[in-house]
Specification:
The complex is a heterodimer of chains A (about 180) and B (about 140). By secondary structure, chain A is of the alpha+beta class. Chain A has a domain of about 120 residues: Hotdog Thioesterase (Thiol Ester Dehydrase, Chain A). Helix content of chain A is about 15%, strand content about 30%. With about 140 residues, chain B is of the alpha+beta class. Chain B has three helices and five strands. In chain B, strand 3 and strand 4 form a beta hairpin. Chain B is elongated. Classes of the chains: A alpha+beta (about 180), B alpha+beta (about 140). The interface between A and B is large, with 38 and 35 residues. Strand 2 of chain A pairs antiparallel with strand 2 of chain B.
Chain lengths: ~180, ~140
């Protein structure tokens, strides 16, 4: 293992959070989301349709899970949130000469659908850092953040794995495989 | 009421109806704000260009939202999404059009679980490829 990778590995596993949401799950934000996405599934807007589908009341689109705890316009976390970051490793890589960043994939799993009134928070950790890899973009490291989302009863709502590639671009004019 | 697909009638290999979505500035900006994502590359062309991108581009939360919508448009309101796994490729820039296609690749009778493999392609290539697991 390289010295660099050994240093990066020290960031793996530390748990950060809680990161709270500014607002409880609510109908206006759900409607705004559905309007923009063109999503006409009635379980998100109509109580009767939601009940027919087996929900206690209107639910939020599951893919909206991450939206509740986003920073928003002011770029600030909701009050009481941790000020740390599971992705602090990215700053280290930036300083080590890997300025490029690209999101590679995002895996979400849902344990339950959020309902109006639910208060969402999440905990985050750096789950893994790959060995140094070379792709078509450049040379760098794949970093995976695992966020676990909870409701106000501390039940797991879902999980998200978000993988990014932090890299040093190939010198201009140089071509690479894969 | 959105009719729900009938689990018993769905077979592995079934194709989901394609869905084309015009990638407009309104969609990119509107959906970024609806997802509470105020990163400038999703609404400010000058900021996007300063980072080497020719224009603003769609954020990941919107891609997730559209993938979820694509699957439940087909599966109906009784569907429960269990997993949405996506891999990101070519950006969605204004003026382009993304077309989703998908196929049922697995069916678990005991768990009432379906797995759909899908992709959303634009003029640059695959914007998103992924798998969605759902119960009906």
């Amino acid at each position: 293992m390289s010295a660099m990778l050994a240093e990066l590995q020290q960031y793996v596993g530390g748990r950060f959070g809680p990161f709270y949401s500014w607002d409880a799950v609510n109908a206006p934000m759900i409607r705004h989301w559905c309007e923009a996405m063109g999503d006409h599934n009635p379980i998100y807007t109509d109580v009767e349709a939601a009940r027919e589908a087996g929900h206690a009341q209107r639910v939020a689109p599951p893919t909206m899970m991450q939206a509740w705890s986003m920073l928003g316009y002011g770029g600030e976390r909701a009050p009481g949130s941790d000020t740390g970051s599971a992705f602090a490793v990215l700053q280290l890589l930036e300083e080590a000469g890997y300025p490029g960043v690209v999101a590679v994939n995002c895996e979400q799993e849902y344990e339950q659908y959020l309902q109006e009134g639910d208060q969402v928070y999440y905990m985050a950790e750096l789950e893994s850092v790959s060995e140094e890899k070379t792709t078509a973009l450049g040379t760098g490291f794949f970093c995976t953040e695992l966020s676990t989302f909870y409701n106000q009863r501390d039940e797991v709502v879902g999980r998200m794995r978000f993988r990014i590639f932090k890299y040093r671009p190939h010198p201009q004019g140089e071509r690479s495989g894969s | 009421m959105v009719a729900s697909a009938d689990f018993d009638r769905i077979e592995v290999g079934e194709q989901l109806p394609p869905l084309s979505i015009d990638i407009t500035p309104k969609l990119i900006v509107g959906a970024a704000l609806a997802s509470r994502d105020y990163q400038d590359v999703h609404h400010d062309k000058a900021a996007a260009r300063a980072l080497g991108s020719p224009d603003i581009f769609m954020n990941i939360l919107t891609t997730n939202g559209l993938v979820g919508r694509y699957v439940t448009d087909w599966a109906g309101s009784n569907a429960r999404l269990r997993n949405v796994d996506i891999r990101l490729g070519a950006p969605n820039f204004p003026g382009d059009c993304m077309t989703f296609s998908g196929e049922v690749v697995a069916k678990d009778e005991a768990e009432h679980l379906l797995e759909v493999e899908l992709k959303g392609s634009n003029s640059l290539g695959d914007h998103v490829t992924g798998r969605v697991r759902l119960t009906l």
